[in-house]
């Protein structure tokens, strides 16, 4: 039983704290009440108690009450127990209903409530989807890197979600500052503080979101081209300007100066096109002072004196009422009460000292933590800078190595070319010398032949033969020289021919010697000429030997070139094989990415189908909901809704055909499906509301037709969930059901709509005349009320009445 009463007492304290924190007074939420609610979530490891009281609050009755509820919920999400997030996820429909209600009303606080609820819903969705980020948004850079991963698509999507998150925060701050006109510019006014108080949590969220967005943008620019991320950079620059303007306005207000230390952003946004700019980024740090504001009196979280003093007081009052006042004699119980009171006061004072000491220690530790974080940030900057410098040096070294390799290759080619030129020049010089020598020998022989012709008339025929042989030999030598210069590879054939010709000439010389044997005795000069011819023959033989040596060297050079060419061919073959392997790998990767894209598009379609099914089931459930009986609608409105739903089936059918033709793009089908689901649900709900005013027969038929519309739509959506039946899904049954609704709505239209055009014009003129008379009467009454108020009131009361 003591535990039960303790629990009941705890719930009473929670109810008191919630009622004090969330009320209709236009004043900021006191920190002590919010702190009690947050400590309660840590005590019970969740927000069940908070929501059990929160759902009973009359939020639709007061916009200020809804605004303070959103503020407390934001603080509970940020600083409460981690399980609070799941509890808030279960009650997100209540939050959304509150925002939708006040969004339709033209109330200053109502518009702020609508924006605040969208921020809270976005916050809950983001942290449920990414549990690595706590609702307080405090994570290390290592956790951020691990969450982002290495997949560019995941990094891209996470960056977009952070931008959306930051947009919601900035929109709330801009809306608050827009409502603070000149008459409410003093931040010490209670009404102004009521609007400004939630911006403390917005500043805390924005500082973390800005830091994470900068990190992910640098990571994206290291993976994707700059042109691809132009839209991201434009959106970030716009958010940077809004956030800087928000921080500047908040820093200038006295209300924030005593509650929060707002960081300063740099003058210009980071340059994501320069990787080294990441080292210049400084994480913005928000500091919340631990000391309570002076206008807030300290209060113990546990009221010790309440239990110890209340019960004796009640007992003493009952005793005095029954037996009269005491006669001056204090019994032992009074003494115990007094001693307990003194002990409680001593314990309270000691607890205050301990609390002050603990706060001082916490402040010192936080200062140390901030200094250590600054040192870590500085070391991280130095490390990042060193990595960037190392990368630049590595690139420079690779470039120098490539330049050195190119220069070495050029030097080798130049050396080889010089060697080839020198060898060619030497061969040409040798051939030129041989040619000159042969010309000189030929001229000498011609001169000797002329002398011999004059002296030896007897041997004239033989001499002419010798001259002819000489001419033939000279011509052959010229031919050999030309062929050696043009084609070295044909020299072996030419040398064979020369050998044969030399043998022939040798035979001819032998014959000439035999024919001249009779003339040897007559002329010694003729024998000398023969000896000269033999010497010339020896010279030609040596020349032929040299040509053979040159031919062998040329063959060796050709073989070397062929070997080099074969090596180059092998190298090119290996490179081709390597490129083919890379091409195959790229094609496999492209196929996997294509399959992943198809799976993602199909997953998006399935999420849309499930959402559409939920919408339609909710609409069909309204047909049997007893709370929906009071809702009514007109046949004309039902007719317009059913016609719009029928028209949406055409775009849905086109989107379905496009998706079946190309499953890599489900955007058209998803958009058409969402529109169809909402219009169909609207038709079913309005059909149910129209049936409440229709005759019984028509009401039953209309209800069943609406139910058939919902069932046929759910059957069509069921076919879209399976890849086997997705291609054969058709909307014929859905169209027939909608046409049935249109027919019934047409039958339920009032018969008065068949009035002729002339009668309708007369009725409209009569109605306009009566309306004009009513307006003139109302204007006259308002003027009488204003004149009466001016006569009876003055000052502030007169100004209020005029408003």
TrEMBL record:
Protein biosynthesis in keyword set: no
Single GO biological process annotation from the record: actin filament organization
Keywords: Actin-binding, Coiled coil, Cytoplasm, Endocytosis
Compartment(s) of residence: Cytoplasm
MF GO annotations: actin filament binding; clathrin adaptor activity; clathrin light chain binding; phosphatidylinositol-3,4-bisphosphate binding; phosphatidylinositol-3,5-bisphosphate binding
Chief place where the protein resides: cytoplasm
PROSITE patterns from the UniProt entry: ENTH, I_LWEQ
Residues in ENTH domain copies: 6-134
Coiled coil (residue ranges): 330-434, 481-550
GO CC, alphabetical: clathrin-coated vesicle; cortical actin cytoskeleton
Location of the I/LWEQ domain: 752-803
TM stretches of this protein: none
Stated family: Belongs to the SLA2 family.
PANTHER family: HUNTINGTIN INTERACTING PROTEIN 1, HUNTINGTIN-INTERACTING PROTEIN 1-RELATED PROTEIN
Name of protein: Huntingtin interacting protein 1 related
């Amino acid at each position: 039983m003591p535990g039960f009463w303790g629990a009941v007492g705890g719930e009473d304290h929670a109810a008191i704290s919630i009622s004090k924190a969330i009320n209709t007074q236009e004043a900021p939420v006191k920190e002590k009440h919010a702190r009690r609610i947050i400590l309660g979530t840590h005590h019970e490891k969740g927000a069940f108690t908070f929501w059990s009281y929160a759902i009973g609050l009359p939020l639709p009755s007061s916009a200020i009450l809804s605004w303070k509820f959103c503020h407390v919920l934001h603080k509970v999400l940020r600083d409460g127990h981690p399980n609070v997030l799941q509890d808030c996820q279960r009650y997100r429909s209540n939050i959304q209903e509150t925002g939708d209600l006040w969004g339709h009303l033209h109330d200053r606080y109502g518009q702020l409530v609508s924006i605040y609820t969208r921020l809270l819903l976005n916050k809950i969705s983001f942290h449920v989807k990414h549990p690595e980020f706590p609702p307080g948004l405090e994570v290390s850079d290592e956790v951020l890197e691990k969450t982002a991963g290495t997949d560019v698509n995941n990094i891209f999507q996470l960056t977009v979600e952070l931008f959306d998150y930051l947009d919601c925060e900035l929109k709330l701050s801009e809306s608050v500052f827009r409502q603070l006109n000149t008459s409410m510019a003093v931040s010490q006014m209670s009404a102004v503080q009521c609007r400004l108080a939630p911006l403390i949590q917005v500043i805390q969220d924005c500082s973390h979101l800005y830091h994470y967005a900068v990190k992910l943008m640098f990571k994206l620019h290291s993976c994707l081209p700059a042109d691809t991320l132009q839209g991201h950079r434009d959106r970030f620059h716009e958010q940077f300007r809004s956030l800087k303007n928000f921080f500047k306005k908040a820093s200038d207000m006295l209300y924030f100066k005593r509650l929060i230390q707002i960081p300063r952003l740099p003058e210009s946004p980071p340059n994501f096109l320069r990787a080294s700019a990441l080292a210049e980024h400084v994480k913005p740090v928000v500091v919340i002072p631990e000391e309570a504001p002076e206008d807030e009196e300290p209060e113990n979280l546990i009221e010790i004196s309440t239990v110890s003093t209340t019960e004796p007081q009640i007992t003493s009052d009952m005793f005095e009422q029954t037996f009269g006042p005491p006669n001056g004699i204090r019994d032992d119980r009074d003494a115990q009460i007094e001693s307990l009171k003194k002990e409680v006061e001593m314990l309270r004072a000691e607890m205050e000292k301990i609390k002050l000491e603990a706060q001082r220690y916490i402040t010192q530790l936080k200062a140390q933590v901030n200094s250590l974080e600054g040192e870590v940030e500085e070391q991280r900057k130095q490390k990042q800078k060193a990595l960037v410098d190392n990368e630049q040096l590595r690139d420079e070294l690779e470039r120098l190595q490539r330049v050195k390799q190119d220069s070495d290759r050029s030097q080798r080619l130049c050396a080889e070319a010089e060697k080839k030129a020198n060898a060619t020049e030497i061969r040409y010089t040798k051939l030129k010398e041989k040619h000159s020598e042969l010309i000189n020998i030929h001229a000498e022989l011609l001169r000797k032949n002329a002398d011999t012709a004059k002296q030896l008339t007897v041997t004239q025929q033989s001499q002419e033969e010798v001259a002819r042989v000489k001419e033939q030999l000279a011509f052959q030598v010229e031919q050999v020289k030309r062929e050696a210069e043009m084609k070295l590879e044909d020299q072996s054939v030419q040398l064979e021919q020369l050998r044969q010709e030399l043998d022939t000439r040798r035979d001819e010389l032998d014959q000439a010697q035999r024919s001249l044997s009779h003339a040897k005795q007559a002329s010694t000069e003729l024998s000398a000429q023969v000896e000269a011819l033999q010497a010339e023959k020896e010279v030609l033989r040596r020349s032929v030997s040299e040509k053979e040596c040159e031919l062998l060297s040329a063959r060796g050079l050709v073989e070397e070139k062929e070997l080099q060419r074969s090596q180059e061919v092998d190298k090119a073959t290996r490179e081709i094989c390597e490129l083919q392997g890379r091409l195959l790998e790229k094609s496999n990767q492209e196929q996997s990415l294509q399959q992943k894209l198809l799976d993602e598009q199909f997953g998006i379609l399935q999420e849309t189908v499930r959402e559409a099914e939920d919408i339609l089931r909710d609409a069909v459930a309204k047909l049997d909901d007893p709370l929906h009986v009071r809702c009514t609608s007109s046949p004309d409105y039902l007719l317009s809704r059913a016609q719009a739903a029928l028209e949406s089936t055409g775009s849905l059918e086109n989107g379905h055909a496009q998706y079946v033709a190309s499953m890599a793009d489900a955007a058209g089908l998803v958009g058409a499906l969402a529109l169809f689901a909402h219009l169909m649900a609207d038709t079913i709900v309005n059909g149910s509301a129209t049936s409440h005013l229709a005759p019984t027969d028509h009401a039953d038929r209309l209800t069943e037709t609406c139910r058939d519309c919902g069932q046929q739509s759910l059957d069509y959506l069921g076919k879209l969930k399976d890849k086997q039946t997705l291609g054969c899904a058709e909307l014929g049954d859905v169209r027939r059901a909608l046409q049935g609704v249109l027919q019934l709505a047409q039958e339920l239209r009032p018969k008065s709509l068949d009035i002729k055009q002339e009668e309708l014009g007369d009725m409209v003129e009569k109605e306009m005349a009566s309306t004009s008379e009513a307006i003139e009467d109302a204007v006259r009454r308002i003027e009488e009320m204003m004149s009466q108020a001016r006569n009876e009131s003055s000052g502030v009361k007169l100004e209020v009445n005029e408003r």
